[in-house]
Amino acid sequence: MGWVFYSLTTVALFALWSVLGKIALRTATPVQTTVLYGVAAALVALVAIGFGQRTAAWSVGTLWIAALSAVCGALGLLTFYLALDRGSASLAVPVIGFYPAVVAVLSVAFLGEKLNALQVVGVALAVAGVALIGAAG
C-alpha cells in the first residue's frame, strides 16, 4: 500500500479522533485524555512491532530528533485537547488542521524541498481558509 492510502486513512482516523476527543472531553479532562492517548499509542506501537514493523538501534545519539518530535507531538496533543475543551470542534480543528501548510513552508526552508505552483496555491488557500474560520469564530 502506498502513501495515498495511508494519508487518506490518517485523515479518516484524525477526523474520528477529533470528534471523539470532543465527546470525551464532556466527562474527561484534557490531561486525562492525553494520558489515555499515550497508553493507546504505546499499545499500537507494541502491536506494530509484533507484526514485524522494523525498529532500529535504540540509542540517544540516533533517536534524539525522534524524541524531540515525540515531545512536540505530545505537547501538541495536550494543546489540541485544551483547544477542543475551550472551543467548538468546528472552529478549533480546522485551524489546527492548518499545520500541513506550515509543514510545507518549513520543508522548503529546512529540508530543501520544493513546492510547485499548485502547492503554493494550496498553501495560500489554507491560509485564507484559516483566516475565514478565525473571522467567523
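The record above closes out task 2.4. Task 2.5 opens with a second protein, given below.
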Amino acid sequence: MIFKTLVFIGLLSSNASAKLGAGNMQAPSELELDLELMIEGKRQLFPLLPGTKCPTGHHCQVRTTRTGMSPMLSSLKANLKTPLAATLNWEDLDSNLKTVVASNDYCSRRSAMSRAAGLAAGVAASTVSMPAYAAETKDVKMGSDSGQLVFVPAKVTVCKGDSVKWTNNKGGPHNVVFDEDNIPGGVDQEKISMDDQLGEEGDTFTMKFDTAGEYGYYCEPHRGAGMGATLIVA
C-alpha cells in the first residue's frame, strides 16, 4: 500500500536522477535526494523534499537541480497563496511525507499520505489537519449473499475516527448490538448500538469510532445462530 501511494507523489515530478561521480563535470547549484524503492521487482526513484535526510534503512541517490527547485516543488508552491502559508504548508508536507516513509503504523501512514496528497493539491493546512480529513468508511454486510446469518466480513479493522457502515443484505431483520463486556473501557455500549432493526434489504446503519480497542458485537435476532463479529479500532 505504501509503495503504491508513493507512486502518486513520484508521478508529480519529471526530474532526472544521477549519482555524483567523475562524470559530473559541472558543480550543481543545489543537491537533493531521490529515495530508491523496489516496486514490483523494479527499482524506482522518488524525490524527497529539500533538506529531507535519507530515511534510515533506505538508499538514496543525489539529484542535481540547476533551477534551484524541482518541477514538483515549483508546482506545489504555485498552489500556495502567501509566503507565510507557503512556509507552513511546506513544513506540513515535509512532515507528512517523512511519516509515510518512516512509520510502521498503517493508520499513521494512511493519515500522513492523505494529508500530504491534500497539501500537494493545494488544500489548506488548516483543512488537512482536521481529524476527519483522512477518515474512511468501511462496509460490512448483514447476511451473506447466499443468505447465511453472518456479518461479512466477520472481522474488520479501522483507524480511530473512521466509520463502519452496516448494510442489511440477506436474511433480515438484522441489527448491531455491541457486547458491553467486550468493548474498550469508557465506551457507551448503548450509544454505539442500534436501537431498532433493519428490515428492508439495502437499509444501512453507520457509526463512527474514536476509541481504540477491540469491539465484539452481534445481531440480536440471530445471536443464537452465531451471528457475531469483531471490530478492531487501531
